[in-house]
């Protein structure tokens, strides 16, 4: 989600000395280390490999094979065609009385070899099958005979019982696209936004690059793709995230919201208790691999590698780069409330604490009257400071307060018990949602530990939210966890009639441990400076959230169009009306069809989209003409999206080529120009991945309202959206108040108008009406966005029939 800002701002730190004959040494060494890191990750997952490395067979299948061989031997049949006799001859001679034992050992060795060969064959067959992407390029709703045959074979070779990491060893590696194709697609993507003169100059640079440098850089990428698990993902993590020196707050983190219209309980401690318990249940299922692998369109498994670092993970600041610290286990959470830090154990001798016991612990913290120590209240502002500054201060802090720092960084995750309410209010719904988004994205600058993989935020009125650090994984991973958490804490765990967690308190539990920080004067000064910077950054962010309730996914499907492409083309129209020009547009999509794949960029501002926008602004164009141009723009976007998902995108390939050129100290004006591009419009769709956990028809209010991120450019917008059920789309828009060119509320109004204008093309010129009337704003200064409909009749389902 927030990766566009990081992608623009990264600066690889390379050395510049060395003779020409030695220039290739650093990149070869880096490629070697990339492969080494890949193999280390495989070895560190030995237990997972034992359970899933034999997939699609199982350990029991070995026993079955061994038993069958023994039975055949007993019946005086030799299925090995004499191989077992050869094996017996190679075994030591322990005497006549052990002749029977040698036969059993020979059968076991033969069974193991045969079993391993069969498993290897199955792995290779499944990997070849998963390398087929023809199904992705077919029209939606249509399936050719080859694809039906492919799907049947995938299901046969996949076996019956799959676990989270079952497919990992069968996933294909991400291919390195043709450099000629990548450059051609790049030139096509920038043509709509460049003048004729600028485009001609860019084309000259591109041809020079292809002629002089491309083949050498491509050779190194091919070499890396053969040796490492993924030719780009580890460099993407390192150079885009870990080497970034910007503040994590706003620039890199993103947020996830609670249910929009309902709050299951107003009791803050109870909501925290159920949410923490649900998160730890998810971690338990994750450790046992009981989470099913995600299947794209119900057919194709996606890479699950990013799930490993959801919990017990912290981004540790360093110079010149950070590193990710992941622990195997952690049995406590770190809690922040009114400037104080606490360590709360999550397990007793009998196992995971019940939701009611966790509620009791959080209530003890809320009732604790002790004040914060000097500067302790603002200590977490250091995690929002530039990374070099925080790295230097942390070195001193680790000496002065090692135990307290370890309790925070070694926690399963961070919990912030906010003293203020948040969420939708009847009095001023638009302003309240905007404030809710700002609170989740930045807070007050000192009440989130931005280094943790995620911070669970519980507001005083029981509203929830997440603030997520981006380097360890992408939004669909945290979104999957968040969907499970909301569904579990509300539908499965539930609350009593008085709003408390079900069950009984445990008075014998020890009190939460208050963490103490010994902060010398030097660190206190750094805290003050970090707080000032964090408040400046958080005060400059302009967030706007609005649910669009005129139509949703069901209407778009009735038009026989892709939902995501529909929104992306409409966003081009809205942005053009807002700024009066076209711009580079960043849409994030996933490449998890491949082993350790992360994301790719879809450049949504296409020539076809621009033609449609011009037609919408041209009064002489007829509705059939506009509708035809809109369909062409949607089809073009779909083609780009599918190409990016299948590893044939533009930006990750150009990024990897640029990194290799930096290692080789080989300057390329073309790659320099690509790297210097800005993204005035960064967009992302938040997918709903576990629709079976929610009953959107009977309980439409109990659906996550998505989340958002900061803008990628100082004069640009960040826009995310989520389809809530079939008839609502929630938009999250961000920009910077310091820019005179942007206004999040103004863009929100343009988005609403653009969606209605596009929809009217498919309804004989009639704009769709909202499903229900939104509450009117009291403050007329807030512009844009259809207002939410407050549904008072909906109640949470009381049965866990969805689980």
UniProtKB/TrEMBL annotation:
Protein's organism: Neomonachus schauinslandi
MF-aspect GO terms: carnitine O-palmitoyltransferase activity; palmitoyl-(protein) hydrolase activity
Name of this chain's protein: Palmitoyl thioesterase CPT1C
SUPFAM superfamilies on file: CoA-dependent acyltransferases
The gene coding this protein: CPT1C
Pfam family, one: Carn_acyltransf
Chain positions covered by the region annotation Disordered: 767-803
Membrane topology: Multi-pass membrane protein
Catalytically driven reaction(s): S-hexadecanoyl-L-cysteinyl-[protein] + H2O = L-cysteinyl-[protein] + hexadecanoate + H(+)
């Amino acid at each position: 989600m927030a990766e566009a800002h990081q992608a623009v701002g990264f600066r690889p730190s390379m050395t510049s000395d060395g003779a020409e004959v030695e220039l290739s040494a650093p990149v070869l060494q880096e490629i070697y280390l990339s492969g080494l890191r890949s193999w280390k990750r495989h070895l560190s997952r030995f237990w997972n490999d034992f359970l899933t490395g034999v997939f699609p067979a199982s350990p029991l299948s070995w026993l079955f094979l061994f038993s069958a061989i023994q039975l055949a031997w007993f019946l005086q049949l030799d299925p090995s065609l004499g191989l077992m006799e050869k094996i017996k001859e190679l075994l030591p001679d322990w005497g006549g009385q052990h002749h029977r034992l040698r036969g059993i050992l020979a059968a076991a060795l033969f069974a193991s070899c045969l079993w391993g060969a069969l498993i290897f064959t199955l792995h290779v067959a499944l990997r070849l099958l998963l390398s087929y992407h023809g199904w992705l390029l077919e029209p939606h709703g249509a399936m050719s005979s080859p694809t039906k045959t492919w799907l049947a074979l995938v299901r046969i070779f996949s076996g019956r019982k799959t676990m989270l990491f079952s497919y990992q060893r069968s996933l294909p590696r991400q291919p390195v696209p043709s450099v000629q194709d990548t450059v051609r697609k790049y030139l096509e993507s920038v043509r709509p936004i460049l003048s004729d003169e600028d485009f001609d100059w860019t084309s000259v640079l591109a041809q020079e690059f292809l002629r002089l440098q491309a083949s050498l850089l491509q050779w190194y990428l091919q070499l890396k793709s053969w040796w490492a698990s993924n030719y780009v993902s580890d460099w993407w993590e390192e150079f885009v995230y870990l080497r970034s020196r910007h503040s994590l707050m706003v620039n890199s983190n993103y947020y996830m919201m609670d249910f929009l219209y309902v709050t299951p309980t107003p009791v803050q401690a109870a909501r925290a208790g159920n949410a923490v318990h649900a998160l730890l249940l998810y971690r338990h299922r994750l450790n046992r691999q009981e989470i099913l692998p995600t299947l794209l369109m119900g057919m194709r498994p996606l890479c699950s590698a990013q799930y490993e670092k959801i919990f017990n993970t912290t981004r540790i600041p360093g110079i010149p780069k950070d590193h990710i610290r992941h622990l195997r286990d952690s049995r406590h959470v770190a809690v922040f409330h009114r400037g104080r830090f606490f360590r709360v154990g999550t397990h007793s001798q009998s196992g995971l604490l019940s939701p009611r016991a966790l509620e009791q612990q959080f209530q003890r913290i809320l009732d604790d009257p002790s004040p914060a120590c000097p500067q302790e209240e603002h200590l977490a502002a250091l995690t929002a400071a530039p990374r070099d500054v925080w790295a230097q201060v942390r070195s001193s802090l680790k000496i002065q307060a090692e135990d307290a720092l370890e309790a925070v960084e070694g926690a399963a995750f961070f919990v912030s018990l906010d003293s203020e309410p948040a969420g939708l209010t009847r009095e001023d719904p638009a302003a309240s949602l905007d404030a809710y988004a700002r609170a989740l994205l930045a807070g007050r600058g000192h009440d989130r530990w931005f280094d943790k993989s995620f911070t669970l935020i519980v507001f005083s009125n029981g509203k929830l939210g997440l603030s997520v650090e981006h380097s360890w994984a992408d939004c669909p991973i945290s979104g999957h966890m968040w969907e499970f958490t909301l569904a579990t804490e509300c539908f499965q765990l539930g609350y009593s009639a008085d709003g408390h967690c079900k069950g009984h308190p445990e008075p014998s539990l020890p009190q939460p441990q208050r963490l103490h920080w010994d902060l010398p004067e030097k660190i206190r000064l750094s805290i003050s400076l970090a707080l000032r910077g964090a408040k400046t950054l958080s005060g400059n962010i302009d967030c706007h959230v609005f649910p669009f309730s005129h139509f949703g996914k069901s209407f778009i499907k009735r038009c026989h169009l892709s939902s995501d492409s529909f929104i992306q083309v409409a966003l081009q129209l809205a942005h053009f009306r807002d700024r009066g020009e076209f711009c580079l547009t960043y849409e994030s999509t996933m490449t998890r069809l491949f082993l350790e794949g992360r994301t790719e960029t879809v450049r949504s501002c296409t020539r076809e989209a621009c033609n449609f926008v011009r037609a919408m602004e041209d009064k002489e164009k007829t509705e059939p003409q506009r509708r035809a141009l809109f369909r062409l723009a949607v089809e073009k976007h779909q083609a780009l999206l599918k190409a990016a998902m299948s590893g044939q995108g533009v930006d990750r390939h150009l990024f990897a080529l640029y990194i290799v050129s930096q290692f080789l100290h080989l300057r390329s004006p073309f790659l320099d120009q690509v790297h210097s591009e800005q993204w005035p419009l960064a967009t992302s769709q938040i997918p709903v991945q576990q629709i079976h956990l929610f009953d959107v028809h009977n309980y439409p209010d109990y659906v996550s309202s998505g989340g958002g991120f900061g803008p990628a450019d100082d004069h640009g917008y960040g826009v995310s959206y989520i389809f809530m059920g079939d008839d609502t789309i929630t938009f999250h828009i961000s920009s910077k108040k310091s820019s005179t060119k942007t206004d999040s509320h103004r863009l929100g109004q343009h988005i609403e108008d653009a969606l209605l204008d596009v929809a009217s093309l498919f309804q004989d010129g009639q704009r769709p009406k909202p499903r229900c009337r939104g509450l009117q704003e009291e403050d007329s200064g807030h512009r844009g966005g259809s207002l939410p409909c407050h549904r008072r009749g909906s109640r949470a389902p009381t049965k866990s029939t969805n689980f």
